[in-house]
Design brief:
disordered N terminus; binds fe (ii) ion; mainly alpha
């Protein structure tokens, strides 16, 4: 992102968070003289206002597309994790979360619809990286061992934490943008990601970690 655009976005966010329109920031009214001694027309103030919402909204949509790719990717990754798990409760957890992930994809499609945007996925390099790492630990651990499960739990928790950070941040941003219906959908998924993360911790602590110590 170019420096100028970044600065513009920061300014936009501050103004939106404060509920201020750009020309209201310094108490100026349309047609009044600005700090540089130039008269500001109604038209330029309006143009700036349109650009303000536009930049932040574009960023919001871009992040949603990234997340949409990540969720769709998990539809392919989770069955692999389930297949490679040793413990039954871990396999069940992956299978249950696969079903939830199908709903997460549908919720994001609803979000795009609410925003009147096409549901388009943009490759999420972070999720690709986390997923490659999961493939790697599967290769590096032996089948039917609890050590495999320890590794799978940590790999899966990395994906959950990525999702938690993204859903949490976007829900917060959606609130700032006044998109209440969108926020409700994002928060529903956010709760399910948090529950999955907690469940994985519980499986690790209840038996998997200890059983792996004697292998
Ligand atoms: Fe998800
Ligand atoms: Fe998830």
């Amino acid at each position: 992102m170019e420096k100028g655009t970044k600065n513009k976005m920061r300014g936009s966010t501050r103004r939106l968070a404060a509920g201020l329109k750009p020309h209201q920031l310094d108490g100026r009214q349309d047609g009044q003289t600005n700090r540089n001694g130039k008269r500001e027309s109604k038209r330029s103030a309006k143009k700036e206002e349109a650009e303000t919402g536009h930049l932040l909204r574009d960023y919001f949509i871009m992040e949603l597309r990234d997340l949409y790719w990540a969720e769709k990717h998990l539809l392919k990754a989770l069955p692999k994790l389930a297949k490679k798990a040793t413990s039954e409760d871990l396999r069940d957890a992956f299978e249950t979360h696969l079903q939830e992930t199908e709903i997460h994809v549908q919720r994001l499609e609803q979000v795009f619809e609410l925003l009147d945007e096409k549901a388009r996925a943009k490759k999420c390099e972070a999720m690709q990286g986390i997923s490659d790492e999961a493939d790697e630990v599967i290769k590096e651990t032996e089948d039917d061992t609890y050590t495999r499960d320890v590794a799978l739990i940590i790999a899966a928790q990395k994906t959950e934490h990525y999702e938690i950070a993204t859903y949490g941040g976007l829900a917060q941003l959606g609130r700032t943008l006044g998109l209440d219906d969108v926020v409700d959908l994002l928060e529903e998924t956010l709760e399910e990601e948090k529950n999955t993360d907690r469940l994985l911790t519980a499986i690790a602590e209840s038996h998997v970690n200890v059983e792996a110590t004697v292998e």
